[in-house]
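Annotated sample (chain length 334).
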Amino acid sequence: MKIDNSKYTYLIDQIGGLLQKGRENAAQSVNSILVHTYWLIGRHIVEFEQGGNEKSEYGSFLFDQLSRDLTYHYGKGFSRANLLYMRKIYLTFPKSETLSNVLSWSHYVEILRSDNELEINFYINQCIREQWSVRELKRQIKSMLFHRLALSKDKKTALKLSQNGQEIHTADDILKDPYVLEFLNIPDNYQYLENELEQKLISNLQNFLLELGKGFTFEKRQYRISISGKHFFVDLVFYHRILKCFVLIDLKRGEVTHQDVGQMNLYLNYFKKEINTDGDNEPIGIVLGASKDQILVEYATQSISNQLFISKYQLYLPDKKQLEDELQKLFEEN
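Output written by the structure step:
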């Protein structure tokens, strides 16, 4: 008998889809079981310590010996560091039902490096919201994402950020200040041109989208606008799926000027009138420079009704101690 090729291909695709889903479910189940098992091990360790505090007669000796004995009897996975994280996951989440069945043990290890409850909650919620891989999570923690977002908000909103992760409802919610572009590997003292910066961002688009945040899809670079025989070019154009609007980004190598603000305002007016279609909300413009004068920015944007923002970028990771101190001050405010 001759097999109907189209039906046979459909059969193969259906079986392939089921296998893929089954494998994903199996992997997720294994991760969930492993996390819960390690949580139980942590509970047993804490109970052995009689309340979770290492007694002077044990000290770090307990974990050294446990690591040796468990490795001897059961193989890999019982390093001293891993045992300390098992203890910590139980102390951080005393109720096992509060553990996520989505995050792997590797996710939890990265998140539990922090001793800040607000930061821990944020990264757990954000990982679940955006389905970050462990690699993506590492990058966001290293770039101090929670601190950068929290410091741009008041105390009440920053607490909400920790409890729920980053919720995007308005244009302000997508803005960061600064944006951290350390993944471009541009030396801090290198005299690069704006088109070089743009090219490097395009070459590292996946990392740039991760820095921009959830909802961004790339549309075009050097988007041409023609008005009265004159041509203008928007450096980068994105579309935001959640806010349902275009996001225009202009890159500036140095300090943002009032002329840059005016130019972006022109772009936004053009997009509103000529590019937007039914269902699109008003576009958002971000002028991204190496520095900005806050007073100049206030005067330059004061009478502008468009959603236009000025933000900074930096080519190196932020100072962790400084951001932690600033965040502490924010939460100490009455």
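Annotation: DSSP finds 13 helices and six strands in the chain.
Annotation: The mean pLDDT is 89.
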